[in-house]
């Protein structure tokens, strides 16, 4: 095997290892907040989308409305989500984050930043800038084959 291929394989292994370590660290924050990984995904989707209904949420998660409802029920019981009647269609409910969920997101955001920043503290400013440039170069070179279908498959695998 040539040196370039070996080096690429090592880089890929390191990327997976870095992702695994960061994920395990982030998992601790979810445990402390009494949130499962799936519930965290739901909260994150609702935070990004704003007010949403069960059907939309189920579609984004590539799951059934019944499964999405179970996730939402757990989050409502924990005080992270509220349901509101849709004034335009009283048969549907809209779901939104509570103030408690907003505060929890701020806490998680700060903790995750501290964790990730500590990982990069080993790099000086020049190395960090170079790392940023290399990451952007790699990201720009990845074909946009990660369409919504691939993203949905990823979310579904996480749920």
Q: Would you spell out the secondary-structure blueprint of this structure?
A:
Blueprint: H1 3-32, H2 37-49, E1 52-53, H3 54-61, H4 65-77, E2 81-85, E3 93-97, H5 99-120, H6 125-141, H7 148-158
Antiparallel strand pairs: 1-3, 2-3
Question: If you had to describe this structure to a student in words, what would you say it looks like?
Answer:
This protein has one domain (3-158): Arc Repressor Mutant, subunit A (Orthogonal Bundle). 72% of the residues lie in helices and 8% in strands. The chain has helices spanning 3-32, 37-49, 54-61, 65-77, 99-120, 125-141, 148-158, and strands at residues 52-53, 81-85, 93-97. Strand 2 (81-85) and strand 3 form a beta hairpin. Helix 1 (3-32) packs antiparallel against helix 5 (99-120), helix 2 (37-49) packs across helix 4 and helix 3 (54-61) crosses helix 4. The longest helix is centred in the first third of the chain and has 30 residues, at 3-32. It is elongated and about 65 Å long. The two termini are 38 Å apart.
